[in-house]
């Protein structure tokens, strides 16, 4: 038997679990209470896991879509609405670029520190023959 359920304009959402880190990934608890919101007329259906901006009693909040075609808990006339959807891709790309940049900077600073020693010794050796002898002796012991 093939049963198809009718589609609804409601989605079920959960609110992300607060994290201590500012740039931490979005997490939702498995047992988090879900809330039902109505899509505005003409709004495209989201996918499970999308971020939705929803109207709440406390104002606009960002929630994670848990399921589609939800059945509202209360009279659908009183349902709160989905205001829009958030695409965090640019944000995540920016965080990835920042992490890569920090890693490159650390590598550059380590290389600079190494070169500072070497170049400083070479400059000193050009200025002082005794220092040059010591540097040559040092290089031969490596």
How would you summarize what this structure contains?
This protein has 142 residues and is of the alpha+beta class. It has two domains: 78 residues, no CATH class; 47 residues. It is built from two helices and five strands.
Entry keywords:
rod-shaped, five-stranded mixed barrel, alpha+beta, 2 domains, 2 helices, 142 residues
Can you list the strand order of the major beta sheet? 1-2-5-3-4
Categorize the overall geometry. Answer: rod-shaped
Assembly level = single chain
Mean pLDDT level? 84
CA distance, first residue to last residue: 81 Å
Query: How big is the Rg?
Result: 30 Å
Q: What is the count of DSSP helices, taking H or I runs of 4+ residues?
A: 2
Helix content: 25-40%
Uncertain ranges: none
Biggest sheet layout:
5 strands, mixed, barrel
Q: What fraction of the residues are assigned to beta strands by DSSP?
A: 15-25%
Structural class: alpha+beta
| Order of H and E elements | EEEEEHH
How many domains is the backbone divided into? 2
> What is the number of strand segments?
5
List the topology elements.
Layout lengths: L9 E5 L20 E5 L11 E6 L2 E10 L12 E6 L2 H39 L1 H12 L2
Parallel strand pairs: 2-5
Antiparallel strand pairs: 1-2, 1-4, 3-4, 3-5
Helix pairs in contact: 1-2
Descriptive report:
It is a single chain. The chain has 142 residues and is α+β, with helices and mostly antiparallel strands. The chain folds into two domains: 78 residues, no CATH class; 47 residues. The protein is built from two helices and five strands; from the N terminus they run βββββαα. The protein has a five-stranded mixed beta barrel. Strand 3 and strand 4 form a beta hairpin. Helix 1 crosses helix 2. The N and C termini lie far apart (81 Å).
